[in-house]
Design brief:
By secondary structure, the chain is an alpha/beta fold. About 45% of the residues lie in helices and about 15% in strands.
Length: about 260
């Protein structure tokens, strides 16, 4: 089990619990996480969902080591189908759960880690939080749920993609990607207090408010953009397959060194 789930005081807390690998996402973790989101969405006793992570880091992204040995066994069609379900489909589903959600982020949140926190309605970040998407080093234009422009603005999005450098918690707050920055030792308590306050609001009103904001973004093109960029994302995999083998193996050591 890679996910812990608990409900108290109308708040469902979902915890990523794979700290020994910085909560890297293998298929099992993502499937368990989706099941936890579904459980919280369907529970009438749950008013607010909190997503948090055990350990020093929120998430180091996709488990790159899980791709070792796949070079001669996987096709682009198989990659597309798997990512459409786990990386794009799950994130869109979590975004549209009709209950408020809050992500509490500490330490590193790398590439695939963004697919976990960006679908949440609010993000509380510890002062040590660093957000990055360095997958351009792998010949790919960004992670599968391409919310960069919406979360950071066009120029900042290009900057972090072109350079691979992390965005600090305070930078993220200034762009509007993060709601609040707090000391690391206050992350859980602050997030809990925020969730508890939101849980006192009428459930139908919260649902309508969330729907209104999400629909406004969709009318502006969010949903269509996410879908179209996902398709272009797959050309990066195709290029890596044709030149270097399965893309998670490309420049792996170089990427790990630059993430330190």
């Amino acid at each position: 089990m890679y996910i812990r789930y608990e409900v108290a005081d109308r708040i469902a807390t979902i915890t990523l619990d794979r700290p020994e690998v910085a909560n890297a996402q293998n298929g099992e973790l993502l499937d368990e996480l989706d099941a936890a989101w579904t459980r919280a969405a369907e529970d009438a006793e749950v008013a607010v969902i909190v997503l948090r992570a055990e350990g020093k880091h929120f998430s180091s992204g996709h488990d790159l080591k899980a791709g070792k040995g796949w070079t001669d066994k996987i096709t682009l069609e198989q990659i597309y189908a798997s990512e459409a379900q786990r990386y794009l489909g799950y994130s869109l589903r979590w975004r549209n759960v009709p209950k408020p959600s809050i992500a509490a982020v500490q330490g590193r949140c790398i590439a695939g880690g963004l697919l976990l926190c960006w679908p949440c309605d609010l993000i509380v970040a510890a002062e040590d939080a660093l957000f990055s998407d360095p997958v351009v080093m792998m010949g790919i234009g960004g992670v599968e749920y391409h919310g960069h422009t919406w979360e950071l603005g066009a120029r900042k999005a290009k900057e972090i993609l072109f350079t691979g450098r992390p965005v600090t918690a305070e930078e993220a707050r200034q762009t509007g990607m993060v709601n609040t920055v707090v000391p690391r030792d206050e992350l859980d308590s602050h997030t809990r207090q925020l969730a508890a306050h939101i849980a006192t609001m009428p459930a139908f009103g919260l649902r309508q408010a969330k729907r209104a904001v999400n629909q406004t973004l969709d009318v502006q093109g969010f949903y269509a953009a996410i879908q179209s960029v996902f398709d272009s994302h797959q050309t990066g995999h195709g290029n890596a397959l044709s030149v270097n083998g399965f893309p998670v193996l490309v420049h792996l050591d170089d990427m790990k060194a630059k993430m330190q």
